[in-house]
Structure formats: structure tokens, C-alpha cells
């Protein structure tokens, strides 16, 4: 069966996901596109999906009879209304992170999906599909003993002017928040944020870098550096210190060169390249489940847990250096 897909939000990642569905993956076809900037949807139709209909609104696209499943890749603050509409229409929905920009919004999605009685939503936490993280998890589960400390870094070369201090949490750290819950099979109990002096390349509304310390229920301490003006590349680092040994996230494959009297390799500069294979696998998974009218992979509950945690981390930014405690409600049976 070919799943007929509608894409809402045809900017950077919407365009890239449309490309992979049309040109890389099997079992899906783009039949609908929508963006508040209509020219962007028209351009994706022209370049990637010539048979697709461009809809005036995301709601019209969701309601269209020939759209079987929906990709929500618009700005974060607009995700909730589209995901709720997809659930109301009974259509599988892949939603990029964040599921919603507030914990209350994510909870409304959980409640709607639970009321529907079946999974329809997959959240775009693609790191769970990354070969390196999957290999790291195997080692953490079986080789290095119980985890004690995680040292991590999430570095972007640069960010736009519109990226402000809280976005370091809900736009960037949100990946670590989800992937460490999954990697350690643990929940967070507190968050603390420390600010070193800001780097020279940042702007007045962004304190950069930041160090976020999350403590888990089992007592593991996770220190993550968020540095979004690091300049040199797109760099994701993670090292888990266990009772018996240490495990590091593998570096992306890179050719080593002996050049100009130095030993060197290039570092990637774009998230699209760093996680290209993970995006392919997560969306292939989505197409496979959507063909059966359901969803798999990271759940609305995972999206909600990430939102609760990221709200606490933003409060911890404001409390600068003070610990903010985190607690979660019970998980509904649908997600256990
Ligand atoms: N998983 C990842 O690694 C990853 C990578 C990049 C972006 N993202 C997420 O994907 C989403 C989009 O990010 P992007 O980088 O593509 O941003 P972008 O600004 O390049 O594209 C977003 C698009 O959404 C459109 N849009 C905004 N509001 C809309 C609305 N109400 N209805 C329809 N379209 C609307 C904009 O016009 C724009 O074309 C964000 O939530 C972002 O966090 C995830
Ligand atoms: O939306 C992007 C994307 O999620 C990237 O994976 C992350 O590294 C960036 O910080 C974020 O702005």
C-alpha cells in the first residue's frame, strides 16, 4: 500500500522530509502540501512533488479525503493544533519536535490520543534511530555497568537572531532530554542551569553557552553543554561513565587526512547531514505503521515527558544555578 502523505510546513525540514519520502523511502507519496508562506509549498511541489495539491491551510489538508497521513513540520508553536486535528480525523501523524511548546499543550495531545484509544502520533526524536546511539545503548545496557555520569555536548555552528535563551532548552536540549530518558531508561528528578560568560559571537537575547545538569531518579548526573555559536561545526558528543567502564557515542564516519603537517578530518556543519540516516529510518518506520493506520516509535507521552522536563529546565535558567525539581504523572496504559 502507498500511504498518501500531506506535509504542513515546507521549510528546511519539511522540504527535506518530502524529498526523502518521494526519492529515498518506499511506501509513501506526497499528495498534499501547505505552508503559511504559500510560495514555499509551491516551490516544494515544483522541485519534489509535482502531483501534490497545495492547500490554503493545514486544516484543509488534514481534512482532504485523499490524505491518509500527515507530517507536521511547521514552527513548534503551531504543532499542537495540527496534531489535534489529525487525531480528530483519525489520521496517523508524524510531528517534528517539539510535540507542543508547553507541557499543557502536549498533555492535550496525550488526552486526545488516549480518548481515541489507539496510537496515531510519532514524535520526531530521530536520535533514537541513530546507528551511533543505538550502538551506545547496547553497550550501556550490557557492558559498562550501571551509569553514574553522562558528559554531553550539543553544539551548533550558529543560530539565527530569532533564537533566544529559552530556545537552547526547547529547541536544542530537547533532543538530549528525550534521548537520555531512552538511553538510561530513567526519569529526571531535577534540573540546574549554569551560565559561563557568554561567547563573543552571541547576541543580547541569547546567553550562550549554557550548562544543563539533569539528575535522574536512579542518581545519574547528566551534564550537557549547549553551545549554539561554536562556529567550528555541528557537533554532538556523549560519554557515559559506568561502574565498570566508559562508553562514547561514535563520531560520524570521516576520512582521516595527513595534510599540511597535520593529522585531520572534516567535521560536519549541518544537522541534515549529521542525522541523515536517522531521519530516513524514523520516517520509513512511520510509513510502515501508517500503512496499518497506526503509529510507532517515540510517543506523544515521550513528547509530553520532554515538554515537562523542558519547562523545568527553562525555570532552572531563570533560577540560575538553583536546582528545580521535576515530577511526572502516571503513564497511561496506551504508552506502557
Ligand atoms: N529533528 C530535528 O533534528 C529537527 C531539525 C530541524 C527542525 N526541526 C523542527 O522542525 C520544525 C520546523 O523547523 P525548520 O527548521 O524546518 O523551520 P523553517 O522555519 O525552515 O520552516 C518552518 C516552516 O513552517 C511554516 N509555518 C509556520 N507556521 C505555520 C503554520 N501555522 N502553518 C503552516 N506552516 C507554517 C513556515 O512558513 C516555514 O516555511 C521545528 O519544530 C523544528 O524544531 C527538527
Ligand atoms: O531545530 C534544530 C534541530 O533540532 C537540530 O537538531 C538542533 O541541533 C538545533 O539546535 C535546532 O535548532
Low-confidence stretches: none
Count of beta strands: 15
Distance between the termini: 29 Å
Shape: globular
Based on helices, strands and strand pairing, what is the structural class?
alpha/beta
The number of helices is 10
CATH topology-level name of the largest domain: Dihydrodipicolinate Reductase, domain 2
The sequence of SSEs as H and E is: EHEHEHEHEHEHEHEEEEEEEHHHE
**Share of helical residues:** 25-40%
**Mean pLDDT across all amino acids:** 98
What is the alpha-carbon Rg in Å? Answer: 20 Å
CATH C-level class of the largest domain is Alpha Beta
**What characterizes the major β-sheet?**
7 strands, mixed
Ligand set: nicotinamide-adenine-dinucleotide, 1,2,3,4,5,6-hexahydroxy-cyclohexane
| CATH homology group of the largest domain | Dihydrodipicolinate Reductase, domain 2
Please provide a written account of the structure.
The chain contains ten helices and 15 strands. It is of the alpha/beta class and 336 residues long. The protein has two domains: 148 residues, 3-Layer(aba) Sandwich (Rossmann fold); 168 residues, Dihydrodipicolinate Reductase, domain 2, CATH 3.30.360.10. Strands 12-11-7-10-9-8-15 form a seven-stranded mixed beta sheet, with helices on one face. α4 runs parallel beside α5, α5 packs antiparallel against α10 and α7 crosses α10. The chain is globular and about 55 Å long. The protein starts with a strand and ends in an 11-residue tail after the last strand. The structure holds nicotinamide-adenine-dinucleotide (NAD) and 1,2,3,4,5,6-hexahydroxy-cyclohexane (INS). The site of 1,2,3,4,5,6-hexahydroxy-cyclohexane has 6 residues, from α7.
Amino acid at each position: 500500500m502507498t500511504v498518501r502523505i500531506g506535509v504542513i510546513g515546507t521549510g528546511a525540514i519539511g522540504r527535506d522530509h518530502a524529498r526523502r519520502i518521494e526519492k529515498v523511502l518506499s511506501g509513501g507519496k506526497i499528495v498534499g502540501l501547505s505552508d503559511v508562506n504559500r510560495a514555499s509549498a509551491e516551490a516544494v511541489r515544483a522541485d519534489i512533488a509535482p502531483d501534490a495539491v497545495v492547500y490554503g491551510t493545514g486544516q484543509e489538508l488534514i481534512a482532504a479525503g485523499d490524505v491518509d497521513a500527515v507530517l507536521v513540520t511547521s514552527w513548534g508553536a503551531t504543532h499542537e493544533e495540527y496534531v489535534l486535528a489529525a487525531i480528530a480525523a483519525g489520521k496517523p501523524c508524524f510531528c517534528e519536535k517539539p510535540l507542543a511548546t508547553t507541557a499543557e499543550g502536549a498533555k492535550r495531545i496525550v488526552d486526545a490520543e488516549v480518548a481515541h484509544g489507539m496510537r496515531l502520533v510519532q514524535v520526531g526524536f530521530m536520535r533514537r534511530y541513530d546507528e551511533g546511539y543505538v550502538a551506545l545503548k547496547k553497550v550501556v545496557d550490557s557492558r559498562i555497568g550501571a551509569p553514574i555520569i553522562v558528559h554531553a555536548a550539543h553544539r551548533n555552528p550558529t543560530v539565527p537572531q530569532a533564537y533566544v535563551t529559552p530556545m537552547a532548552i526547547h529547541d536544542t536540549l530537547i533532543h538530549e532530554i528525550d534521548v537520555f530518558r531512552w538511553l538510561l531508561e530513567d526519569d529526571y528528578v531535577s534540573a540546574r542551569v549554569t551560565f559561563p560568560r557568554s561567547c563573543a559571537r552571541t547576541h543580547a537575547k541569547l546567553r550562550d553557552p549554557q550548562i544543563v545538569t539533569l539528575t535522574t531518579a536512579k542518581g545519574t548526573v547528566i551534564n550537557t553543554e549547549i553551545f549554539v555559536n561554536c562556529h567550528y561545526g555541528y557537533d554532538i558528543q556523549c560519554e557515559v561513565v559506568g561502574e565498570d567502564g566508559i562508553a562514547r557515542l561514535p563520531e560520524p564516519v570521516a576520512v582521516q587526512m595527513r595534510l599540511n603537517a597535520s593529522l585531520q578530518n572534516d567535521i560536519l556543519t549541518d544537522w541534515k547531514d549529521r542525522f541523515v540516516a536517522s531521519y530516513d529510518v524514523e520516517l520509513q518506520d512511520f510509513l510502515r505503521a501508517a500503512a496499518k493506520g497506526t503509529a510507532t516509535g517515540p510517543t506523544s507521552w515521550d513528547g509530553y515527558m520532554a515538554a515537562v522536563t523542558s519547562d523545568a529546565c527553562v525555570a532552572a535558567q531563570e533560577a540560575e544555578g538553583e536546582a528545580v525539581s521535576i515530577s511526572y504523572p502516571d503513564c497511561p496504559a496506551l504508552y506502557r
